[in-house]
Design brief:
Helices cover 26% and strands 30% of the residues. It contains nine helices and 17 strands. Strands 5, 6, 7, 8, 9, 10, 11 and 17 form an eight-stranded mixed beta sheet that branches. Strands 1, 4, 12, 13 and 14 form a five-stranded mixed beta sheet that branches.
Length: 316
């Protein structure tokens, strides 16, 4: 019986949507609501071009006027702003040696799909954290930094976390989740500040801190003993799934006897309210270093409408 080949298993029309759906399921930021897959973003990601313009209406300002039977109301302009996102175009190829275990599965296409989806969930996470690094200097009003304080005053605590969320004032109720390094999580566990809630799955509990859902990810920056913790609002990042011309291909290197799986993804993952400038990009799609470059970002929303707090602190 001939050996099973990648091309015998992968049906692109079935595989492509499966990978997108499974990536969403495996993405902790999607499941917590930090990333929102907005259908409007899907449309934008498919409209063509590398840059996506997203106009918005600014909040209405000023005082109301008293009504009069002799004086007409003044007419005020409704002003608009312009947000802008970048389409990311990325791909990856794997040889059969990397997928040998998957080929032995009961449902090999599903097994391979789950592995590819897990890979792309990790890539999304990289872009999210690189974006956070890039926008930090663009949103100084959303940064709370106690790391330079003396002794215990530089250490994360319930009090200082509440001081951090106060940066949004009466809009702090928009915050619903908090992302932290595992060392920060362990510190808060030691302080008995992490509370767990059961789910329908008896094997899964949701960790919370001061009522905020906790996402633990060691991609949260740490440098010189200074940790960065993020407080997120629902949908602070918008996700749009685009359409690569050929999302999935299989190939075979006959000389090496190796089957190859190629997967390409076009997508938007954008922090709402902080515009992409395209100032320092060399290639067709931004590198991770370019996503983290501060000059590529400018805040366009009012501070309270950027549903994000960047909290810098120490653990001891």
């Amino acid at each position: 019986m001939p050996a099973v080949k990648i091309s015998d298993i992968i049906i692109p029309a079935v595989f492509n949507p499966y990978v997108i759906q499974e990536t969403n399921r495996l993405d902790a930021f999607m499941q917590s609501g930090i990333i929102n897959n907005d259908p409007a973003f899907d449309v934008l990601a498919r409209t063509g071009g590398n840059l996506v313009n997203m106009p918005f209406f600014n909040d209405l300002t000023g005082d109301s006027e008293g009504l009069s039977d002799t004086v007409a109301l003044g007419v005020n302009a409704i002003t608009t702003g312009q947000d802008k996102a970048r389409l990311h175009m990325r791909g990856k190829a794997w040889g059969v040696n990397d997928l040998a275990e998957a080929l032995s599965g009961a449902d090999p296409m599903a097994v391979i799909g789950s592995k590819v989806a897990k890979f792309w969930a990790g890539e999304r996470s990289k872009i999210l954290f690189k974006s956070l690094a890039g926008i930090e200097t663009a949103i100084p009003e959303n940064v709370y930094d106690i790391s330079a304080a003396i002794g215990g005053l530089a250490v994360i605590s319930g009090k200082e976390t509440l001081n951090a969320k106060q940066k949004l004032g009466d809009a702090s109720g928009k915050l619903g989740a908090i992302g932290m390094h595992s060392a920060t999580y362990t510190k808060l566990q030691q302080d008995d500040l992490i509370i767990y809630f059961p789910t329908a799955d008896a094997n899964v509990r949701i960790a919370t801190y001061l009522g905020y859902r906790v996402i633990v990810d060691d991609a949260c920056p740490v440098a010189g003993g200074i940790y960065t913790t993020y407080m997120f609002g629902q949908g602070v990042f918008g996700l749009g799934n685009g359409a690569a011309p050929v999302p999935t291909e299989t190939d075979r290197d006959k000389l090496l006897g190796e089957d190859i799986l190629i997967n390409r993804q076009h997508f938007i993952i954008h922090p709402r309210g902080v515009k992409w400038n395209e100032v320092a990009v060399v290639g067709a799609t931004p590198t991770y270093a370019e996503v983290a470059t501060a000059t590529n970002w400018t805040k366009v929303y009012e501070t309270k409408n950027v549903r994000l707090i960047i909290f810098k602190h120490k653990l001891a």
